[in-house]
């Protein structure tokens, strides 16, 4: 299902949390949302799921505005970071509630998934640990057979085995029925494993949206040592995103790596010019800090 | 959802939240009416078997017992406030509110189902009580003497409508507030405010002017205060004999009472729905969901604080203590304003 976020603005209290967000997610896309704490990720997710009413702009899902729209909301699976269910409910009661609420909810699918996670249906929600509640939330969301899955920090509280299982399930769902996924996480390694596109949000603004392949091609970290010190003009080259110096060694991070750039660098006659590995986490940090677009 | 106008899932949820309200309300009604009637009847039977004289007006004992139950008002008041709290308390917790608002229901549907579930519980409790009272009446028909069966219908109808009106009013307050515990306190208090304010203003005007207790303005304040007091709507009048002896209680002007209660119910439901539909989820947990009502709360609380202080500690001094009364009125107003402002800000943070 296509998701279009147009000129989205949201204020919480006196703080402008989202500013002019524009974004488009195609069916079958797994979109990862990253940003520092307080950047606006959860607010964006809450607007995208129709929980918050935007102050300006709108979120369209499958061409319809999501806010106060039960038909569209019936197609969205939402997993929040924080436990939210009625704590006195047993899991079996939550299943009944979901089966009544969602047109495509399948208790059979839930039980199938539960073979992996092994939750007892007679257990009350308040008796579950944080990790177990997250498993429950994920199973409920997947059993809705949603067309859009929105996940806010879904791997928090999960042990490594459960996390791997969850990520595997997500990929499987996307492959089997062109599910669109919007996922926010601080665990960049998780995002790297499953996302095809990443959006970097900072201080309420969408700083960058790139496919992972694009980022890996364009963002490179190069180690340089010059005999006469670092040439100052290099920092202002349009391809250079960031410059760091450690002793005599200089590092540049590119935002548009090319052979032509490498050729120009060689003309400066560096003593050392070699590429060093740049992890996804570093890419996001540079992207967020330096305004990579 | 599944094609229904009102989602069954919401009925399921609300029923699970408030089902104990049905048990509580039913039990309370049975204890306060049927059990009392049974006890009274047993006593009468024993009294008659002992050959004691039963005065003529005791022929209306059942009517008297049903209509004259001022204690029940308090119980109904508390039970309805608790019922509305049960319906709202889960939805106003931040994370739960977010989860529910991500689900396929409109705010209007959520409001309608919530109100209908609570109203159904109230109607159910009165229906059970009414059926049992009917059975009691006909089983013990020979002991009902002068009381016609319609007293059961009238009492049930009036108290049911009264309860629905009170319920809808509390519902309106909860719809405007983001903190259900605070709303459970503010709702009942605010239902008493209009009558209290009129009485307080009457006192202030009386002591600050040369007004006499028999003057038209004084009488007007008294009348309006009575009309704004909830218990007044279920207070019985009395039929007396030629010698002025009270024979039995009646609910006079029944049509007018039904009309007023119906109007309160409809107005509260419509206004509550309007407010609820504009509730912003992010304000869950704050004192007020509707910022425009902040001045009403702050100045209302300030006025009530001033009037309460002036009435509690100023009135006893009569006209000699007007200065003290006015000082307390002003001081209470300022203190109340500051306190209310602080509370609103605290919940906003």
Question: What this model shows, in words?
Answer:
The complex is a heterodimer of chains A (about 290) and B (about 350). Chain A has ten helices and 14 strands. Chain A is α/β, with parallel strands linked by helices. In chain A, helix 4 packs antiparallel against helix 5. Chain A is elongated. Chain B has about 350 residues and is an all-alpha fold. Chain B has twelve helices and two strands; from the N terminus they run H-H-H-H-H-H-H-H-H-E-E-H-H-H. Chain B has a two-stranded antiparallel ribbon with strand order 1-2. In chain B, strand 1 and strand 2 form a beta hairpin. The two termini of chain B are about 35 Å apart. Chains A and B meet through helix 2 and helix 3 of A and helix 1 and helix 4 of B.
Which term fits the overall shape of chain A?
Answer: elongated
- What is the succession of H and E elements of chain A? EEEHEEHEHHHEHEHEEHEEEHEH
Largest interface: A-B, 31 and 25 residues
Q: Please provide the count of β strands of chain B.
A: 2
Q: Give the overall pLDDT of chain A as a whole number.
A: 89
Gyration radius from CA atoms of chain B, angstroms = 24 Å
Could you report the average pLDDT of chain B, rounded to the nearest whole number? 88
Helical amount of chain A: 25-40%
Structural class of chain B: mainly alpha
Query: Strand share of the residues of chain B?
Result: under 5%
The span between the termini of chain A is 26 Å
How much of the residues of chain A is beta strand, in percent? 25-35%
Apparent shape of chain B = flat
**Spatial strand arrangement across the major sheet of chain B:** 1-2
Low-confidence stretches of chain B: none
Q: Which stretches of chain A are poorly predicted, pLDDT < 50 over at least 5 residues?
A: none
Helix-strand category of chain A = alpha/beta
Largest sheet of chain A: 6 strands, mixed
The amount of helix of chain B comes to: over 70%
What is the tally of helical segments of chain B?
12
Strand order of the largest sheet of chain A: 6-7-8-3-9-10
